[in-house]
Structures are given as C-alpha cells and as structure tokens.
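debug: dumping io for the single-chain case to check the tokenizer round-trip. Nothing else runs in this session.
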Amino acid sequence: MPFISPQALAAQWWRLQQSESPDNLKRVQALGQDHAAQLATHFYDVMLEDEAASKLLNHEQVRTRLHQSMTNWVASVLSIHDQAGLEKVVNQQIHVGQVHARLDVPMFLVLRGVRSLKQGLAALLRAQALLNEGERLQAMYWAFCVVDFCMEIMGQAYHRSHDSSSKAQEAYRLHAATYSVGAERERQRAALLDWENQLLFDQASGSQGHPLGTLSSSEFGLWFRHKGAHAFAGAPESQQILEIMDGVDKQLLPRLGLAKEAGERLDGLRDLRERTRTLAMLLDGLFEQSRDADAGRDVLTNLLNRKFLPVILNKEVAYCREKRSSFALLAIDVDHFKRINDEYGHEAGDAVLQQLAVGLSHACRGGDYVFRLGGEEFLMLLVDVQQDKAMVMARRVHDQVQSEPFQLPSGRKIHVTVSIGLALHDGHPDYQHTLRRADAALYEAKRNGRNQVVKG
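debug: decoded output
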C-alpha cells in the first residue's frame, strides 16, 4: 500500500475545506461545538449495545476515559481549520488508527461506529428548524465528507500498523516455539515432574491441600498458559494440554481432596499419573516440531529485546480481559551506570548487565518475561499477579541485586543497586498505558534518590 504523508493528507483536507462555502462550514462547526457531547453519548450507546464491541468496551471505560476523548474528537474534526493547523489534526487521526491497530480493534467495528455517528449527525441536522432542506443536505454532505476523510486517514495508519504487528506476531510465534528447544523441553518436563512428585508426596504423607497449588498455577502451568500455548498456537496438542490441565484442576484435584478411602485415593493417583504422562508425551510432540532460532534476543544479555514487546503485552492484555486476571510491569534501571563505565570501563559495564540479566531471569516464574530495552534499562512482566504479590516480587528483585556482589572482569567485586517502577495492569486495553505508568514510577524512584521501588 503506498504511503501518503501527513503533509499531503493535510493538503487534501485543505482543498476539501476550500471547496465548501464559508456559511456551510460555520453551520457544521457550530453543530460540532454545540452537540459534541451528545454525539459522543449516541456513539457509545450504540457501540455498547453491540456484542462484538462490548467485548472491547465497558461502561466504566466509556465514563472515565473515552467519552471526553470522543467529544473532543467530534468538535475537532467538524471545526474550520487553517492550513497550518490541519497537519496536527491529520496526525491525530493517524494516532487513532495506530491505537486501533495496537488494540486489534476489528475494522468492521470502527466502520460500524462511523455509521452510528453519521446517523446521529443526520438526526441533529434534520432537527435544525432554521435551515431549509437544501442547507440541511449541504451541511450533511460536508459533515459526512469530513468524517469519511478521517476514516480514510485512520484506515491507512491502521493498515500499516496492523500489517507490521501481524508480521511481528508471526515472528514471535516462530521464535517462541523454537528458541532453545532442548533446554526448554527438559526444563518444562522437570517442572511438570516436580509438581506431580510434590502432590504424590502430600497424598502419601496424609498432608491436606497442595502446597504448589493447581497445575495451572505451577511453574509448568504458568509457562504453558502464557508462553507455550501461544508459541504452539494452532497445534492440536496445545489445545489437548490445556484441556488436560483444566480437567486436573477442576475434576481430579477436588476428587482427591474429598477421597476418604485408600482405594479411592489410589484410583485418583493412578489417574493423575496417566494424565501427567500424557502431558509429557504431548509436550515432547510439540517440541519435536521445532528448531533452534535466535531472533528477538538481545546479543549481550540473551534476554528478549523490544521486538516482541508489543506482541507479548497485547497477548497478556487479551488474556487478562478473558480470564479477569492481572499482570504487573517492573521498569528497572541500574543506578549510576555511567559511573560504572567511567570508573571501571565498558567491559565491566557489560559484565554488570550480563550478571543482572541472569539474576532477573532467576527471579522469574515460568510464565514471566524479562526484556532488555536498551542500555541499562530492563523490563519484567509478571503474569497472574495482584498488587501485593507484585510489590513483594519487586522488593525481592531490588534486595537481591543490592545484596549480591557483581564480579568484574578484573576480578574486583562491586555492589550495584537498581531503581524500580511498578505498575499493575488496571484493565486499560492499550498496553502503552501500563508502560507509561511504570516509566513514570521509575522516574519518581530516580528523582527521590534511586535504589528503591515506587508503585505507579
């Protein structure tokens, strides 16, 4: 698709505006200014009644965040703009299109919303008693032209962003399915076996409850739900593993918990052994389909880089919306890193970053992610956590870094501290919202003296 620059789009808008009479432009502008809030209410009333749209919207989001933005948008696009101001308006439409693509809003929903907006505009213009029929039609034509042109600009931005996102998603799927296959297979088989052995021990010793929790919340379960299932999406084995995990948690574990007789408990344990064997076999089958790949890894630390950050965060936002769970982001920055480079050399700085990467990886659970964003900046994504647990994990990371000496290539050991900004996903559909809050919290931690955790 050929790209049309914002400057060229602004010029087209200017020519479109110049083709209309000043009186008609003023009528439409007055309509937008006087009824923008009413049109926004009409727009969201229609959208919230739509089953597909209601999966992306809720009344609280509309009330607290979206209604005012829509009101401002209506007033802005229906206003008369000078030639210099039109490029800013065009860039606003491009931004909206990019956000829609980032949130994976279906294009048919966007067009459905536009149809409802046009219906609202038409109803308002028909109610203008001071206008004759010709003036109403002329104003309606211009209002529709402006809205359609905005959709054209948004559509171009949506297409470019969505196409780029789709390519990144496919690259991530292949990367996640194939990276370090041998090591990951053994690690996850061991995690599954550890969970099974702990459960068997608890049953044999007469312990009540299961310290490791459900299979879904185990190291293996977290890894598969947040990484494996996405990496092997589309494979029938992947869906089978999810179904077996669900059956173990919802049927088998409750049955074992209620078992009174030894024979009944033994039958349950045999069932458990059979299901975990099946899981291991299915897992082997999935890994056999994969090959090694290194794309998407930071060369120095071997952590994920920015390439797959949008894909992973969008995936977690969708997961949280479906499961009504939450995740947290830890924005991490090495304190006074420039001083380390200046005093000990860049080789020492690289060694610090590599050791920190290892420490952050070890602090993660199976489903969590660690990224190196660049320089001394890192990001941790903690899945399936609430605020209290996220803060405990953030403080644990902070204290661990502070307490363990870092070995430099010269043989010298130094102590390093980090500043951490914590943000819990609050249900906002755009992951950038959570990222900005984590960055703001990190900035607050650095401004307050560094070497601390701040919650945003």
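debug: round-trip ok. The chain has 16 helices and seven strands.
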